[in-house]
Structure formats: structure tokens, C-alpha cells
Amino acid sequence: MVAQEGTKSKPGEQKDPATCEHLSRMLARICDKWTLLVVRTLGRGPRRFNALRKDIGEISQKMLAQTLRDLEENGFVTRTVTPVKPPQVEYALTELGENFLSPVRGLAEWVAAHSDAITAARGAFAQSRTIK
What we know:
- By secondary structure, the chain is mainly alpha-helical.
- It has helices at residues 17-30, 33-42, 49-56, 61-73, 95-131; strands at 47-48, 77-82, 88-93.
- Strand 2 and strand 3 (88-93) form a beta hairpin.
């Protein structure tokens, strides 16, 4: 594969467009707002649906159900149904989900450590836009 004119490849850089596209799709799938919050919350232990919704906060029932379904489909979460009346459903992280918890926590720590700098940059950017 030839690099685009004027583009220099770095050592270890992905050059295969199909690989880059796959990585991009996977990152979009696992790094959205609700996925990160659900994984972080389940990192504290298994939860039933309503307890999970309460712990997360402003997530709709539909969005939580969709997020849990996506996480289950991708192997991050297990869904266990206890056959009682009414049925009880509990969600927990799988081994893959537990493994994903480490970078999620790292990202949260990075955001917390840099939130003042990000807020200042946003303020400076907004100020520069109003001056023009």
C-alpha cells in the first residue's frame, strides 16, 4: 500500500485501510458515553436492570436496554435470568468486560486529571470565536 502523497508513515502505524476501518468501528461501538458508564458501574459488581439504571442516572430505559444488548453481543456482559415470578435478570461483566474495565478507569482518571485544562481550552476557544 502506498502512502498518500505528502503523508509519511510512522513505525508501527496501521497502513491497511480495512484494519483502520475495523478499529474505528470497534472503538465507536465500545467507547460511547453509555457503554463506558455501564461498564464502569458493572465494575462494582453485578446489578439488576433497575439498580443499574438508578446507579447510572439520566439514561432512558430504552437506551440502557440497547447498551446492555450491545455489550452482551460483543462479549462484555452476561445476562442471567433467575426463573422466579416475576423473573429476575442480573447483568455482570465477563472476563473480557473486566479486562476492558482497566482502560475505562484509566480514561476516567485522565479526564479527571485534565478537566481543568480542557475547560480552560474550551473557554479560550469560545473567547477567540467571539472576538472575530
